[in-house]
Amino acid sequence: MQAVVLNAQRQFVDQERPTPVLRPVDILVSIQAIAVNPIDLKRVERIGPTDSPVFGYDALGTITALGPQASRFKVGDRVFYAGSTQRDGAYAEQQAVDERLVALAPKNVSAADAVAMPLTWLTAAEILQDKLGLSLERPLDHPLSLLIINGAGGAGSILTQLAHQLGVTVLATSSPRHFEWLRQHGVDIPLDYHQPLVPQVRATKLTIDASVNLFDTGRYFDDLVTLVRPFGHLVNVTRTSLPVDVQKLQAKSQSFDWELMFTKSALTYQLQEQGVALEQLQRWLDDGRLKSTRTQTIQGPLNAATILQAHQQLAQHQTVGKLVIERTDSIK
């Protein structure tokens, strides 16, 4: 099969590779569409000698084969998933993926709209459920205010929607030109990231119960310690470019939380929870409860030139929502 790999010079090249060998509970998927995420850019910078050279962590396609113990799906099913960083990704004609990480794709939205969602949905769901202890099945029975740094990106745009659905008061930062996007995706109070954060938040008179930093952990750490209430949570998704003094959390008994969506698949910890979460995403997309966060689509062959184009667009850091590649070449 054809795949796009990162070579020793950190360049994407087309390469013929063997069809993946299926593990017992794997499915083999013929890729129709993928989404490109910031983690793809980061892995280009950080790839090690034992890492897979095939990236791609949002995918949608059709099942063409089943592992000997796979039982959740059948050949011909259309599925979507985020996958795992520990195995070859979706920059290929076909991908093997553990069926526990997978759900049937939505039927009432396009492939491009659906494939934009798995990775960021799982990130948002794990933040709200695993870190903040909320239920996605029922609205809050008490007031809660959540401050999100970088609310207009892919993860932010689904986290804001999901939190809003639960009755959370959502504050989120972005450029002012994206304030309308924030409001359309569940944000109650947009904040200008060009301006000092603390006075903007204090002007709202709200008690901030928790924060989610989707940008740079160190850049906002001191401000978030100041703003989040005693016994509140500071959830962080990205690495830090600056030292972080966690001792500052002690006086307010605050909790410092990490969220990495790939932890469960990398450490084979509760893998089935991600498949179940994607089943919920499928239902909510199909019934219109959630909007896809796709804003850009590249249509073309799934080759090195197309991947490079997508990475160059994402590297400009001007993307609101998600960037998707939809295959136009023949699917074997």
UniProtKB/TrEMBL annotation:
Residues 9-325 form the Enoyl reductase (ER) domain. Signal peptide: none annotated. One of its GO terms (molecular function) is oxidoreductase activity. Gene3D superfamilies: Medium-chain alcohol dehydrogenases, catalytic domain, NAD(P)-binding Rossmann-like Domain. InterPro entries: ADH-like_N, ER, GroES-like_sf, Lipid_raft_assoc_Zn_ADH, NAD(P)-bd_dom_sf. PANTHER family: PROTEIN AST1-RELATED. This is Alcohol dehydrogenase. The lineage of its organism: Bacteria, Bacillati, Bacillota, Bacilli, Lactobacillales.
